[in-house]
Each structure stands twice: as C-alpha cells, then as structure tokens.
Amino acid sequence: MAELWFRPSKLQFLSVHVRGGTDWVAFELADADNTFGSGEITSTQLDREVAPVVARLANKLRGEQLSSDDDVLRLTGLSPSDLEANRLLATAVSGLRCAVADALAKRADLPLHAYIRQQHGHDGDAATRVRLYANINRSMLPDDRGPVDRSPESFTKMAERAMNEGFTTAKCAPFDECRAPHEHQGLPACAEAGLERIQAAKDAVGPDRTLYVDCHSRFDLNSAFALGDELKAIGVGWYEEPVSPLDDTAAMRQIHEKSPLPNAGAEMGYGVSVFKRLLDEDVLDIVMPDVKFCGGPVEAYRIGMEVEPDRPDSVSMHCPSGPLSLLASAHATAAFGNVLPLEHAVYEAEWRKEVMEPFEKIETGEFVIPDGPGLGGRVDPVMAEMRGRRWEE
C-alpha cells in the first residue's frame, strides 16, 4: 500500500438544491490522469460556507504527492487540536481527507472499506450491507414554499412509512418550541408539544422497534433531568444531546450520571481523542462521529476501532446529510464492523437516489455499498447541472 500516491491538480464543486435552505455540497479533487476523489461539505450546521476554505487548503495540496489522507494535515500545517477548536476548518479538512482516501483506494483498485482495512492491517472482509435508522425529521423541515406540517399526525405518518419500508429504528427531533435556558424548574411547558410528537411517533414505531430522540441542545441541566424521565416513560431508545456534550461537557456529564436512558451525541467532534475522552470521562454512552466533521471515513474507522473493543455498541455514525456522505459513512461503518445502525435522513427529497452515479441503493432498511473501487459512486454532474450548479476553483 505504501507505494500508492495521488497528486491532485484540479478542484470541482457540485451543489444540489434540496429544499428550503438545504443544499448538498460536494467536491471532486482530481489529478492529471483524471483519477479523482470526492468529499461532501454540506454546511447546514455551520454559519459560513465551507467551499472557499476547501479551495484555500486544496491549493496547498496541488502538485504534492499524497500517500495517505493524513497528508492533508501535514501539508496544510493543521493539527488535531486546531480542528477540534474550529468546526469550519474541521469540515473542510474532513472533506479533503475523504477525497484523498477515495482517490487512493481507486489507485489500489479496492473499495474504500477494503482499502481502509488493509491500510490498518485489519483481517477479513467487511460486510457490503449496512443497517440504517430512519431520521424522519428533515422530511418535515420547511421546503421551498415555506413551513410544512409538524403535527403529531405528520410524525405518525413519516414513522409509519419508515417502518413499512423495512426500517426497525427511527429518530425524530421534535422540540421546535424550546430554547435554553428555561426560566422555571422542572419540565418546561414548551416541551409538551414535542412530547406529543414523540408519543405519536413511538405509537407508529411500536413496542418491538426503536425510536431515538434528538434534542438539538434545546435544554439546560435542570430541564434535561425532568425530560429524561418523560422519554423513559414513553419508551424512547436513546436521549441525544439535551445539551451539547462538546460545548457544555460538565452539564452533559451530570445529565449522563442521572439519566434513565442511554445518552448519545458529539456529532460535531473531530478526531479519535475527542470521542474517546467523552466515553472515558462518562459524558456519553454513545458517540456519533460524522464523516463531514470527524476527519472523514478513515478517522471514523479509527474512532470505531479505538472505542468499540472496550465499549461495545458505543459508536453510531451520524449522517443527516446528502447521499455522498451516507456512502462514505457506510464504508467507514462497514470497515470497523459497527453494530449500531447508521443514520439516514429519509424522504427529504423523493429524487434523492438519482443524485448519485450509480443510484443510491437502500433495501429494507439497509444501505447496499456499490461495487467498484474507492467510494464506488459520485455525485452525478448532470444532476448537479439540473438541480444546482458546478464550478471549478
């Protein structure tokens, strides 16, 4: 594997408009032979565009001989601590590391999951089907005409659809009305509407299947204690980010100590050390690395291999974004043999599968990794032209 290398010289961005304020943004980093690697940098959770940062950092890679995705850090002069502290930079670097790993796997003529395993001396073959859970929330966010139905009945409808299509686990983010801090002690009144949505979704999912709840850090220490008991009574499977475990670690540790449910989170974290520390210091039960922020699919694999042997079922990949990041996440998940399901944002766009070349393939709640070297797929440039734009830097 050591003799493989990739020397990038060209950079192309592809953006596809999805709905409302959401665009899926990806890029391809190519060499003179048109071997290319792809990464996704969709930035719905950031307040600035990532593409200019990618372009600036990619200029430091042009003409350089890259033999590992770690070369992105070496050549840009960035350290893991720099990226832990700056999420915009972490997103750009994660995308570049994904693209370099994709290109090198193509050079090796191996699927990305097989390339990662060989690179790290991991014996055996990875599975090519990855179990998913259905995040129903993004299908109910505002579309191009404005707000859509967020009633309990709508949560029921989306959860039923997911179960009917073979998913065994769903996730919702129902607390639209809540913003921390909360004035009064105990469960805030603003949470009642969210609890009604959760109950509706849980009734649709049923007692033998699982519903996760994402709180999007809309609570504080006191309200989170009260909310945990309510979620337990409904039968929720995990309690995700009542507060941010990265930005309010001390509060999340106290919530974890008293929580009646498993706690999950840290979707914006970068690097192995962050996720290991959150588990070792009893801040979370389950960490949720996202390939767009954590360092890309190779770093996600390292996170899984670092923490799963000592803490089984402690990693569930986070991925509420476009089909390119789901593809990269599936490779990482398969590479370290993850047990907990990978997130998939269902029904956000009915034409979603057509964004990829070849089409994204999901069967009975499982992602089917395509054949072929590297990621095995790319954003279709024609689809980008039809539903968004392409540009070069």
Structure description:
The chain has helices at 51-58, 71-76, 80-85, 87-107, 112-119, 152-164, 191-205, 221-234, 249-258, 272-280, 297-307, 323-335, 381-387, and strands at residues 8-19, 22-31, 36-40, 129-135, 169-172, 210-214, 238-240, 263-265, 286-287, 342-345, 356-357, 362-363, 366-368, 378-379, 388-392. With 393 residues, the chain is of the alpha/beta class. It starts with 7 loop residues before the first strand and ends with a strand. Helix 4 crosses helix 5 and helix 7 runs parallel beside helix 8 (221-234). Helix 7 (191-205) links the parallel strand 5 and strand 6. It has two domains: 8-111 and 383-392, Enolase-like, domain 1, CATH 3.30.390.10; 129-377, Alpha-Beta Barrel (TIM Barrel), CATH 3.20.20. The strands form three sheets. Strands 4, 5, 6, 7, 8, 9, 10, 12 and 13 form a nine-stranded mixed beta sheet that branches. A four-stranded antiparallel beta sheet has the order 3-2-1-15, with helices on both faces. A two-stranded antiparallel ribbon has the order 11-14. The model has no long low-confidence stretch (mean pLDDT 96).
CATH topology name of the largest domain, in short, is TIM Barrel
Largest sheet: 9 strands, mixed
Low-confidence stretches: none
Straight-line N-to-C gap: 30 Å
Q: Count of helices?
A: 13
Helix and strand sequence: EEEHHHHHEHEHEHEHEHEHHEEEEEHE
* Percent of residues in beta strands: 15-25%
Task: Give the overall shape, derived from the CA principal axes.
Answer: globular
SS elements, strand count: 15
Helix content: 25-40%
Oligomer: single chain
CATH superfamily of the largest domain: Enolase-like C-terminal domain
The structural domain count equals 2
CATH class of the largest domain: Alpha Beta
Rg value: 20 Å
